[in-house]
Amino acid sequence: MVRDRVLPAKGCGTVRIVADSDQRTIATAEVWTAALLPACKPAIAHRPQDVADPLFAPIAERAVKFDGAVARAAVLANAGPGGIAGEDRRLQPVMRRLDAILCGPAKTGCGVTGEPSGLAPAKPDSRPKLSGALDSASTVAQILLLQYADGKPMREVGWGRATPADIAAASELHAVEFRLLARPLYVAARNLSGLGPMMRQAIVDPRADAPALTMVSGHDTNVASLAGLLDLHWRVPGLAADDPAPGGAIVFERLVDRQGRRYVRAVYRAQTLAQIRTLTRLGGAARPYRRVMPIATCTARGVRGLCTLAAFDALMATRLSLG
User: Fold this and answer.
1) Cα gap 156→139, rounded to integer Å
2) Got the DSSP string for 63-126?
3) Under 8 Å CB-to-CB from 180, ≥6 apart: which residues?
4) What share of the chain is helix, strand, coil (3-state, %, to 5)?
5) Based on the domain organization, do 108 and 164 belong to the same domain?
6) For 203-230, how does the pLDDT look when each residue is reduced to its tens digit (9 = 90+)?
């Protein structure tokens, strides 16, 4: 941050930290801030713990107009011509491997594949939700991933029946859930109706005393919706494409050229799954994953995915209003 002249070499600079009201998101913001600015104590804006915040969950808190039937149609359109059933068929090998991990020698009455996958009935003010095998399998996949990332001995990961390759393969179930439920534009725009305007303001704010850095401690659903809004893609080693990594983040960088023209680029940064598991000390050759992601429709300076500041602001405004 100092090298890139985002923060000063001396002093604290001006930063804004915003967290959702869950214990884990508040703690994440506290630890992140302490690591970045150990001599400073910037305020962390959040509601009292466990008091719902419509900034992060505007659909559930009815802070935005939301049509469950339109959202359902958007999800089904994103599933492609085979629909949810087609996704179920495609992912059967991965889900059968989860059955083997879950059930061991048991032959019947166990596992995730016993129910057909579907989309739960639409509700007027609730985000769409999967049902059946894909819903259960995504949850199991995330639990196994967290066991592995936590550094547990392999004998304790999936009862000793899961391998790192299994966890990487099962990560696709989690990524597919987000692709279907959080990335469709109608859902993404409404899920970001609180955070989106705040992000726009943070990036385009022209004031000399505006925060040089804004950090938002939220959820993988927020990350997936932001990626859907701008058609952003990544793949962290050890995980499936577009699966939000534990502790990962989408970063928007504001750049300035020698003529003073301003641009915005998007970056995904995260520790790899192996780095999280082994508590790898980053530095030198041990680098975190970092990928510059092309932003949809932008080609500033002839660079695919690079936006002028004005183009980025206009794109965000347009996408947030769609649906």
Assistant:
1) 18
2) -S---HHHHHHHHHHHH-TTHHHHHHHHTHHHHHHHHHHHHTT--SS-SSTTS--EEPPP-TTS
3) 75, 78, 79, 84, 87, 128, 130
4) 40, 15, 45
5) yes
6) 998 888 889 999 999 999 999 999 999 9
The domain tally of the chain equals 2
Distance CA 112, CA 53 (A): 33
Do 26 and 19 meet the contact criterion of CB atoms below 8 Å apart?
yes
Residue 104 shares a structural domain with residue 169: yes
What's the domain range around 243?
A: 15-61+190-321
- Whose CA is closest to 36, among 8, 1, 72? 1
Q: Which helix (H) or strand (E) holds 169?
A: helix 164-181
The pTM assigned to this predicted structure is: 0.94
Q: Is the dihedral of CA 175, 179, 183, 187 positive or negative?
A: negative
φ, ψ of residue 34 to 5 degrees: the values are -65, -35
